[in-house]
Each structure stands twice: as structure tokens, then as C-alpha cells.
Amino acid sequence: MKKGRAGNHFEDFRCGMKIQHATPRTLTEGDRSLYIGLTGSRAVLGTAETNAQQLGFERRPLEDLLVFNTAFGKTVPDISLNAVANLGYADVRFLADVYPGDTLVVESEIIGLKENSNRKSGVVYVRSTAANQHGLEVLSWIRWVMVHKRDHGAASAEPVVPAMNAVVSPGRLPRRKYAMDVREIVTMTGTADLWDDYAIGERIDHPGAMTINDSDHSIATRLYQNTARAHFDGFAMAAAGGQRLVFGGHIISLCKALSYDGLENGLSIVAINGGTHVNPTFTGDTIACATMVLDKIILGVSNVGALRLRMIGIKDSSASSIVFPHPGQARQDYPSNVVLDLDYTIVIPKKS
Amino acid sequence: MKKGRAGNHFEDFRCGMKIQHATPRTLTEGDRSLYIGLTGSRAVLGTAETNAQQLGFERRPLEDLLVFNTAFGKTVPDISLNAVANLGYADVRFLADVYPGDTLVVESEIIGLKENSNRKSGVVYVRSTAANQHGLEVLSWIRWVMVHKRDHGAASAEPVVPAMNAVVSPGRLPRRKYAMDVREIVTMTGTADLWDDYAIGERIDHPGAMTINDSDHSIATRLYQNTARAHFDGFAMAAAGGQRLVFGGHIISLCKALSYDGLENGLSIVAINGGTHVNPTFTGDTIACATMVLDKIILGVSNVGALRLRMIGIKDSSASSIVFPHPGQARQDYPSNVVLDLDYTIVIPKKS
Amino acid sequence: MKKGRAGNHFEDFRCGMKIQHATPRTLTEGDRSLYIGLTGSRAVLGTAETNAQQLGFERRPLEDLLVFNTAFGKTVPDISLNAVANLGYADVRFLADVYPGDTLVVESEIIGLKENSNRKSGVVYVRSTAANQHGLEVLSWIRWVMVHKRDHGAASAEPVVPAMNAVVSPGRLPRRKYAMDVREIVTMTGTADLWDDYAIGERIDHPGAMTINDSDHSIATRLYQNTARAHFDGFAMAAAGGQRLVFGGHIISLCKALSYDGLENGLSIVAINGGTHVNPTFTGDTIACATMVLDKIILGVSNVGALRLRMIGIKDSSASSIVFPHPGQARQDYPSNVVLDLDYTIVIPKKS
């Protein structure tokens, strides 16, 4: 058998197919440092051991999106090595914290397939889950991705498009315990705004902006052991008249880090309800973002609440110039400088 | 209240104002690795656990300038997010070692304010201190920085310019204990030159040179969680006719790493007496440096002494081409390729 | 004596000269993370703690080439700071695993010297060894390197060219113990090919390709504390009509990482039989590679065998375009896009 397998194409997938992804990955303090260096994250739980302990944790959990991007990377060799584009996310749930030393094991199930009308490619819908070394599920997500066909003439089964909820319902959000005095977070962040201080419909223009260098996204994407060709093979991309694409997960991480200014007291991401990489990002682009509060959710605990947020990432424009697109807007109707439309839910301390 | 605060402007500061900076930061072995990868540091104490133990330490302390740059970064969102330029340092004292796992907490006091005659900006003088998780002060420094006014018409108080000493006097240098046989350092570095072998007025042209890539300084600056816009927002900088500036702390770190060749047996920085980033540095610049021995200081211990050094950093020229500027020379009289003029004090083993 | 020594030139070396290299280096989990971020390595032993334990290790050893490049870097200030080019490797043996927290101490002996006919430079042959903090030898290698003369008129001794074996004989390969059920590796990598599934003469075109960014190789080379000027001083390289060269060790690491697809179940490198950096590599080059199986070696244990492999690295061309050069082909006869010709031996599980 030929070695050096080059990933699956659209016609290699079947609905119900289950895939155990190679090779498990242990995350460490080294990965955390690199994550901070690559994104500039200042998330309060991940920045200091003392913060984490005061907030009720034994030690600092790893940043949610470091976990997400690493788990995602594990799926690439089987799912999206030959991807045209990563189209969207749904029902992403952060179920348990991941700590330095933990090992992620990732598996997937194909839950939908739909060939494109040009018969050159098709959309693959995948449910993936990451567990830690104790078998505890820490992350679960659906994504759909457009994948090339190897043979344009290959036959396809009937299209199956899975039903997906537009939002992770409150009852399915993880419940974690925080220290009783979790609102002392304001002494750590120097910012007083808690759950109570955000209003539905409120808009936050995050003041920072970040220009992406080639090594920034390349190192990040390799750290996640994501091998998708489009991010790394500049020679092949140039031969096809293009250039290397920035990994979408890096854009989410950058926007999340920029959104610290305005959401300082957010503790954790608990869900990504949906998200789309609307346009591609390239080396040299400068990313800015703005957030809108979509909903305020009361959880079954007294000291924290959840905020459902919509974050729009844009390139080479100011955050204030962002026009929040109509929800459910077709991909092709977004302005060409919008790169991310992400609907996600965070936990944040409440006033008494 | 509007969220996503965009930092203080000149008129927001008052003399005597105290600021507790967000959010404390834990440093780890991951940060050390990244520091070595970004600067090429070969400092003997930080490079090997075995070195540190032979020199009388329980374990490897973190590099002095990793601590300095991280602590500095904590002050940026409150002090210098809207800085025009970081003008100078004085009375920087490294009071205790920082180890992997330690958490830095940083606070500042405004000690001087002086509006510029154009009334568009002003100089802010700040005394900052970093303590570890046990409340032990590890670093104390003064810097002054030119900050934009938000409203050019805003009134300003009488100017206050704090008195600052030109040098940290020997009595104020930290006293640390080293192993009795600290001069065995020469078996680690392969270099015999100890305190006794340096002469006042001696000049050392460090042989290396380092070209700065965009991700080098961007990753370093993000690692320090320094959010100053001028380092990151290439779009805004280009719109204003400029480009992203390299963080001055990265230049100090690079020059310090280059100066290893010629100062191999230096153990620790104990003070920065003064320093100026004379001209800006950009991606693609190649940095070289030379050192002059300004003074030799006898400490109250028998096995180590201190050297007061002046290090000049230059871009796109050889170290041998450096002309040491007249002390106290006005900023505008420096040659345009000089980027750093730093007066600092190190501890180095003495012969018996 | 003048400080800031600028490395040895050809006439400074003598056969039999022994050099203890400065300064020992402790490797950590931080270095591992950075190595993954810089190379994209997915090596099964280094990626997850759980993998290592199932394969019979107490914990994850560090990647072989992180150890090799770090140990190599230690020799640069004494051996190759003034190198024209690193010409080749022989008899490289990986004798014991290195773990986070281990400290490498490196020493060398000059075993050959041969002046070039132009009398401007000469070839220096060096045997180097790295030991850990317990004095256990972990790595031993020969390399030869062309070094500038300081004084073209300096006299040279008679040429000495050491005898070198073309291959590390099976009896000199290290013996390590693996868990009895080491072939369960296929559940970790998802790939069934073990020692038995490779045939002598079989060729593997590895499907990936990697474009090298300037910070990628600069950070890697600094992480190894390799100070060779040619990698860092862009100003001097441009003044001489050239540009910075990518460190050859980074190319070996990249090719090794790309070769994961097709050699997924390789456990460790045990030897580099020989190798040459045939042509230089620069920022922006895209690297691809192919492997040919040269030999299958039966070791004195039942559950693993060794494969002797030849890996050719190429720039800006596809792996499938590689023509394996005639063994022993003269350097100048290689196509200009071939950058690496490496003959090395790995251990891989056997079927019962």
C-alpha cells in the first residue's frame, strides 16, 4: 500500500463513519506561553496562578481557545487536509477545564454530506469530541467544511444535512463552580463591569488592532499540529495564483484577545453557538473587532451569569466602522473586509 | 459607562495618583524558552539548572530582562497605551530573583507631569514596582513617557519634574549571596575574565549582530502582554504615514544577549541607572552594540563586584563604528542610527 | 586581552585539540512546545505523555532533533562562528533519551584539518559528544565544516582527513527497551505500517510542504543558542551581496516533521549515517521531501527493528519531482533545488 497518505477527499466519507484521530496531544505550560506570545491573550484565568486560585480553581486552566484549536488540529489530517474552506461551526461546548499536563484524545463522526452542484467538491458535516486522559469529555463541536473530490465523476449518496440548533440552549451549558467571592475578579482586572453591567443590544468596539505576521500564524497553526496545506505550502498556493491562508482558529484567538478590553471580567467561554470565517485572511492584514451582546442568561448558580455575544472581526478597518450584518446573512453578502462572525457564550461574575 | 477603555491621556493623570495594574502574571519555564528563542540569550544563570546550582542558587532564576519587560508590560494599558514615545528610565533596581511559577503584581505612582509647549502632549513620570506572590518587591523603576492629550485645550496643573539620581548608588544595590566558589563560573562559560579583568574606560565591541523580523518583536511584545498600539496596529501606523515600532524593551534584550560575548561572566543585572531609546527601530533593522566600562564598584561581599556599564545599540552599522556620545547629550544630537543608550550595573565574580 | 572574542579561524585549530563548550543547557517542556510550533512535529513519542507511557517510557522524551540541534548549537561559538558552510555529518549516534529538565554538556575534539587550495579557508573535522547532568553520553557526532582563515598567509600543518564509516554499523546502534506491546502504536497513529511493511528500495513521497518564514528559522536557531553570523546578520550578509541563510539543522527538522506522513510509526532516530546540506535555503523557500528505504536492520530485540532511510529535501518543487541522486555524488552535481541529502536510521515496531 502506498505510504504518506494525503488525506480524505469528499467521496471517501460516509455518514455515520467514526474516526479516531492520530495522535493524542499533551498540552503544557510551554503551550500556554506560546499561546500568549502568539495572541497577546490577557485572559484573567490564564494569566496568573494567583488569579485562578482566588477564583476557585486549584491551578490555572489552559485558555479555552488553545484547547479548541489543538483539538481541531487533530481532526485536520482526516477531515480537512484537502479542504477548500472551513465553512462554519455549531454547538461547540466547552465541557470541562484542561490543565497543563492533560492529554487530549479526539474523535469524530461524519453526520452529513452534501455534494456541490459543480460535482467538484462537497460539504462534510462532522461532530467531534475531545476527551482528556481520564476519558472525561472536555469539548464537543460540529463543523462543516468544503472538501475537494478526488474524482469529479465519483458518485455521491443522497445529501444529508444535519439539523443544528442556532444556539446552545442554557440547559446544555456546562456548570462549573467558582469561588463564592468570584466578584473579587475586579481587583485583578481593575475593571468593575460584571454580568449586571451589560445590556442586551449593547455594542463594544474593542480598541486594539493586530497586524498578522507570517510566522505568527504559521507557528500557531503548527503548535496545533494542524497540517492543512493551504496554511503552509506557499509554493503550491502561488502556483495556483494565490497565497497561504491564515488558519481561521488563529483569527478567533486574536479577536478574543483583542476583546479583553471591554470584556475584562469574562471567565471562560462555555459555548460557540455558531461561527463563520466569512472571508480569508492573509499575512499583513490588521485585525480589529467589535462585540454585540445578544442575550443575558441566568445560570443555576448565584454568583455567575452568562452572556451570549456576537463578535465581528474585520481587516484593515477600525472596529467602529463595523456594521453588524443581518443574522443569517448569506456568506457572499458580507462586506469583503469582514473575516469572522462568531456567536459565543461566556461566563462572567454577577453582582449579588 | 462605555466599555473597552482606550487608556489614559495626559490630562487624566495627577501627581500622587496610584494605580494597581491589571492582571497579575505568572512566569514559567515556557516563558524562559520563548525568551531564549526570541533573543538568543546565553546568560549563564538562565541557560542551565546545573550552572545555577553551582553558583549558589536552588534553581535557575528567570532572566532579569524577561522580568523587567513583563512588569513593564503590565503598566502599558494604564500609562502608555497612548504614548508617543517612551523617553527614559532611571533608578531601575532588580531587588530579588524571580523563579518559574512566581507571579508578578505591579503598581505605579505618578511622580511628575509636564505638558509640552505645543499643548498636544505631555511627559508623565512614573515610579513602578513589581512584587511577587509573597509580597516581596522584586523590581522598582522610574520611567517617563510622552503621552498624547485627548483634548488639546485641556488645562494642565503646574509642571512637576521629579528629582532623579543619575546612578543607583552602591548602597542601594541589592545584596544577594552567591556560592563561595562563584568564580568557578569560568568553567561554565569558558571565559576567564572576572571583575578584576575589566578596566574603567575599557571598550568592548560585541561581535554579533541581529536582524529583527516582524514576528520576533511582535511575539516578544505580546509575551509581555504589552498592548501599546504603536507595536501592533500596522494599518493605523501606515495610515499615519509610518509603520509599526519595535518595542524598546526588545532592543534592550537583544543588545544584552549580544553583549554576552565580552561579558560572559556577568551574573545578574542589579540596576539600570538610566537609559534612552534614542531613535526608533523597525522590522528589518540589524542591531549591533558596544559597551564601555563606566565604573567598578566594590560590594560588601568578597567574591563578587559590580561593573557599571554603558551600552550603545546601533542599527545597520558595525559595533566598531559606534562613537560613544557625550554623556547627557541631547536626544536630537545622537546620530540617527543609534537606537539605545543604556547605563546599567551588573554583578560579576571577583578573583580572591 | 581583548574581550568579545569572535570565534576561531582555520589556523587556530590543531588536531587533537579538545574543547569544552560554553555554557551547558537545560531543556524543558517550554523548548518542546516551541519545537512543535516551529516545525509542526507530530512525532508519536513527543506528542503525548500517554503515548510515551504506553510505549514503555516513564515520560515523554524530547524530540531527537531538538537535542541534536541544541547540542550542535553549543559547538558553534568555538567551531563554526566563522564558517563558510557546514559540509557534512557522519557517525551521529543517539545514545540515550533526553527528558525535560535534563542539562546537556557538550565537548569536541578536532580530528582532522585540511586547508583549501586557495589558502583562504580550510575544512575542520570535529567529533563532538553531549552528555547529560549525570555524565551519561546521549549524543555523539562527527561534522566537517569549512572555516575562513584569519590570515591567508598563515602556515598550515599537513592535512589530516579522518577515516569515517559510511554507515553506523548495527552493532553500534543504541539498544533501548520498549514496552512489549509496542506495536499498539498503531492505535495512536492510526497507521498500520510497521517495520515489516517497508521494503528496501521503496520510495515515499511525503505529501506536505512548508514555506519558511524569517522568524521561523531565526527563533529556532536562537532557541538552539546557535550564534553563527550567517543566520542572523542581515546587514552584513546584504553588504556582501547575499542574505541570511537558514540554519541547516532547521531544514533537517522540517523534513523530519514532513516525513511523519508515511513514517508515522517511527519511534526514534538512532543514527545519522551521513548528511549534506547540498544547497543553501533562504526565507520564503518552500520545503518538501521524499524518503527511500536503504536497508532493513534486525536488532537484538524481538519487538522493534531499524530502517535505514535516505531523505532528500527540495525547495520550491514537489516531492514527486525528486530524483534520488547517485550515492556519493559530488556536491556540485546536485540540482540547485536540492537542499538536503540525509542518510539516517530509525527504530520502528515489528510485527510478532
TrEMBL record, chains A, B, C:
SUPFAM superfamilies: Thioesterase/thiol ester dehydrase-isomerase (SSF54637). InterPro entries: HotDog_dom_sf (IPR029069), MC_hydratase (IPR048274), MCH/BMMD (IPR052342), Thiol_ester_hydratase_Rv0216 (IPR016790). This is L-erythro-3-methylmalyl-CoA dehydratase. GO terms for molecular function: lyase activity.
